From TrEMBL:
Name of the protein in question: GDT1 family protein
Topology of the protein relative to the lipid bilayer: Multi-pass membrane protein
Single GO cellular component term: membrane
Any one GO molecular function term: metal ion transmembrane transporter activity
Similarity annotation: Belongs to the GDT1 family.
Highest taxon of the lineage: Bacteria
InterPro entries cross-referenced by the UniProt entry: GDT1-like (IPR001727)
Chief location bin: membrane
Keyword annotations of the record: Membrane, Transmembrane, Transmembrane helix
Residues annotated as transmembrane: 35-55, 67-86, 98-115, 135-156, 168-190
Originating organism: Acinetobacter parvus DSM 16617 = CIP 108168
Pfam families, per the entry: GDT1
C-alpha cells in the first residue's frame, strides 16, 4: 500500500501544470464531453503506465543493484529539478484537429498516450516501479495520481487552473522526488 500512496502523491503533484493537464483543459474546452474524455485518459494512462511499470521492473533484472540504486537516486533527484521547470503546451489545436476524426474518445486516447511518452510522469512510473518492485501498485498509484490531477481540469476547466498555486505544488512535488532519491541512498548505505 505504501507503493500505491507514494506513486499516487508523486504523480498527482508532478501532473499539476504538466502538459497533459493542459491538454485535458484544451480537450474539455474543445469537445465539452467530460465522461468520454476521462475514460480515454484513464485507459491511455493505465496502458502507458502499465508498460512503464513493467519496464521499470525489467530494468531491475539487467542492472546490478548498486548501479540501479545510483540511477534511481540520481533520477529522482533529477526529477526534483525537472519539477521546478514549468511545462508549456505547444499548438495542440493542430494535433486535436488531426485526431478529431476518431471522435472525442479516440482523439483523447491517442493524444494522451502520445503526450505521456517521455513525460515526467512516465519516467517517474518507470523509476517508482524499479524502486518499489511492484508493477501493480505503482501502475495503480500513478494512474490514480493522473486522474486526481486531470479530472478537475476536465470538469472545471481553466477556472480551476487559475486558482491553484502551481508553483507551490511543483515545489512540493520536487521536494518529494528529492526525499525519495536521497532516502534510497541513505537506506542502502546506512540500513
Amino acid at each position: 500500500m505504501y507503493e500505491f500512496l507514494i506513486s499516487t502523491s508523486v504523480v498527482a503533484l508532478a501532473e499539476m501544470g504538466d502538459k497533459t493537464q493542459l491538454l485535458a483543459l484544451l480537450l474539455a474546452a474543445r469537445f465539452r464531453k467530460p465522461i468520454p474524455i476521462l475514460i480515454a485518459i484513464l485507459l491511455a494512462t493505465t496502458i502507458n503506465h502499465g508498460l512503464s511499470a513493467v519496464l521499470g521492473q525489467w530494468i531491475t533484472t539487467v542492472l546490478s543493484p548498486e548501479i540501479l540504486l545510483w540511477i534511481l537516486a540520481l533520477g529522482f533527484i533529477g526529477m526534483a529539478i525537472w519539477m521546478l521547470i514549468p511545462d508549456e503546451l505547444g499548438d495542440e489545436t493542430e494535433s486535436i484537429n488531426k485526431w478529431q476524426r476518431f471522435g472525442v474518445f479516440g482523439a483523447t486516447f491517442i493524444l494522451f498516450f502520445l503526450a505521456e511518452i517521455g513525460d515526467k510522469t512516465q519516467i517517474a512510473t518507470v523509476a517508482l516501479a524499479a524502486r518499489f518492485d511492484s508493477v501493480f501498485w505503482v501502475m495503480c498509484g500513478t494512474t490514480v495520481g493522473m486522474m486526481i490531477a486531470n479530472a478537475p481540469a476536465v470538469f472545471i476547466g481553466d477556472k480551476l487552473a487559475d486558482k491553484l498555486p502551481i508553483s507551490l505544488i511543483h515545489k512540493i512535488g520536487a521536494a518529494i522526488f528529492l526525499v525519495v532519491g536521497i532516502s534510497a541512498l541513505v537506506q542502502h548505505y546506512y540500513f
